[in-house]
Amino acid sequence: xxxxxxxxxxxxIKTKSEFWTHVYDQLEILVGVQRHWVSNLSNxxxxxxxxxxxxxxxxxxxxxxxxxxxxxxxxxxRSRQPGQQTLAKEDRPAPFFVMTCFYLISSLFPQPxxxxxxxxxxxxxxxxxxxMLLGPFSGRxxxxxxxxxxxxxxxxxxxxxxRSTVLVPDVLTxxxxxxxxxxxxxxxxxxxxxxxxxxxxxxxxxxxDCLAIGGFxxxxxxxxxxxxxLIIRSCDW
Length: 237
Ligand code: SME
Fold this sequence. Notes:
The protein has 237 residues and is of the alpha+beta class. The chain has a single domain (3-79, 90-234), classed as Beta-Lactamase (2-Layer Sandwich), CATH 3.30.450. Helix content is 33%, strand content 20%. It is built from seven helices and six strands. It has helices at residues 16-30, 37-54, 62-67, 74-77, 122-130, 154-162, 218-234; strands at residues 97-105, 131-139, 145-147, 166-168, 186-196, 199-210. The chain has a six-stranded antiparallel β-sheet with strand order 3-2-1-6-5-4, sandwiched between helices. The longest helix is centred in the first third of the chain and has 18 residues, at 37-54. The chain binds methionine sulfoxide. This is GAF domain-like protein. InterPro entries: FRMsr_CS (IPR000614), GAF-like_dom_sf (IPR029016).
């Protein structure tokens, strides 16, 4: 099967639980061939994002359909500059999700190999010890680092220090939310936790942003936490 077909969603899938189980099964195959986190997280971000985009907007029923970020009304919420040309609604890609991304502790990232003095830069040293950096992602550009110490910032920083998933139905009501994209309305952030020698080490977070209010619920949390655990055990850290 071509790798891209992993993000196709069969019509037989009717519930969020079935959807996340399907994504999990596809991801398990994709990450089963090697253990480098850059490659595995890249495919994970793409798979989650593309699968969500592939899901029909009329998924589920009634309220559930609305809660799955699939409302076509999001087209009308997007800001437009005066005089800016816009595509007709039917010509635009379905923008249900703006982001599926990983933020990871900066010590996981490779140090420069060909720039002699980069590792001596005090600013870079500070970031290397206390922050998460943007990792593999799918979607529009995002902020590139998020502080976790001494003061955690945003939903991502909170999920990191609490070591538990943070569900945000309406980002405007969340104190300290970092608005990487002004169109984001709701968000879910799941920590990536490695169990090693009886200790829990938080390696980063998985962050999904949605263009509808109340885009995520407990079913998404269960599905994403299972995927986060798969990602952790499929890579060498
Ligand atoms: N909103 C996040 C920042 C990351 S972006 O959404 C990609 C936060 O508040 O931590």
